Design the sequence.
């Protein structure tokens, strides 16, 4: 079994050459809710989720019609400079979630519960989930795991906290899983399908499948009534999610094979920063148009 490069922040190389495809149709409803996503599943309508960690990108993604924004704990690597998502704290997530929620008018804002904030069981999960809605302004939370976290999902939902499940490869369990590896191959397939169903049965409004063979993900999406969101799970799921810095080519390093890079923001930003430095050093900036009269 080969190990994939760690996602969440890695993104170098050439941008994809093809232009952005036209939007498939009207983007509204006014506000996207978990019930909207359930209806879209019934209608066979596919949708996109992107991570967001700050007000500027959140308002931009909201404006262009991204229906679901995930304040992912991938912020651990993309924003906070950690090597993994494991050190991310509830306080970190609250700061980022508030920024995204304040800047969002329409998208459903989902906040990750970070590692250590729900693993003790349902009571801890409810306490953290309530915080994410009450203090962070999120509309829902996401947590990682399969059947083992189903009691926590149930407790959260019963407490009024909508939950997005996340199974397959779960980055918070990187050490337990032996690295970034595709999950659900061979005999693992039935367990993975059962985990996804357990999340739905516990009340999850959607389930993320990460790094799962495409045929298995397609089967799970077919079998579940709730939307299945894929990342590295092929084209057969109801929705897709990418880390925005991967999608836009802002990160450095190797890009996981499941990322499609739609821009070269790293190259563009590097060009802008170099031009600014050179301008300052040569006296090209500021000019009279940037200066005030006496
Ligand atoms: O933290 C994150 O960004 C995620 C997704 C990419 C699914 O969990």
Sequence:
């Amino acid at each position: 079994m080969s190990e994939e490069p760690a996602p969440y922040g890695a993104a170098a190389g050439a941008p994809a050459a093809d232009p952005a495809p036209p939007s498939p149709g009207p983007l509204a409803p006014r506000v996207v809710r978990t019930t909207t996503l359930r209806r879209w599943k019934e209608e066979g309508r596919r949708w996109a989720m992107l991570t967001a960690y700050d007000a500027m990108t959140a308002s931009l993604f909201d404006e262009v019609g991204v229906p679901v924004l995930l304040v992912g704990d991938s912020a651990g690597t993309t924003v906070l400079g950690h090597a993994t998502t494991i050190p991310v704290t509830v306080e970190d997530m609250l700061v980022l979630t508030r920024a995204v929620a304040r800047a969002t008018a329409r998208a459903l804002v989902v906040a990750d519960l970070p590692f250590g904030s729900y693993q003790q069981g349902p009571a801890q999960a409810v306490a953290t989930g309530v915080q994410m809605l009450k203090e962070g302004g999120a509309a829902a939370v996401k947590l990682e795991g399969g059947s083992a976290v189903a009691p926590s999902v149930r407790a959260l939902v019963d407490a009024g906290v909508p939950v997005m499940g996340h199974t397959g490869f779960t980055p918070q369990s990187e050490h337990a899983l032996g690295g970034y590896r595709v999950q659900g191959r061979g005999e693992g397939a039935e367990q993975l399908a059962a985990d996804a169903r357990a999340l739905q049965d516990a009340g999850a409004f959607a389930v993320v499948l990460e790094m799962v063979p495409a045929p298995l993900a397609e089967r799970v999406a077919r079998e579940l009534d709730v939307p299945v969101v894929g990342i590295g799970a092929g084209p057969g799921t109801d929705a897709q999610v990418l880390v925005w810095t991967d999608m836009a080519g802002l990160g450095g390093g190797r890009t996981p094979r499941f990322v499609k890079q739609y821009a070269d923001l790293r190259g563009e930003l590097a060009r802008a920063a170099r031009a600014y430095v050179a301008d300052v050093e040569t006296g090209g900036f500021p000019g009279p148009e940037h200066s005030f009269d006496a």
Summary: The pocket of 3-methyl-2-oxobutanoic acid is lined by residues 51, 70, 72-74, 112, 166, 208, 210, 231, 241, 243 (CB under 6 Å). The mean pLDDT is 92.
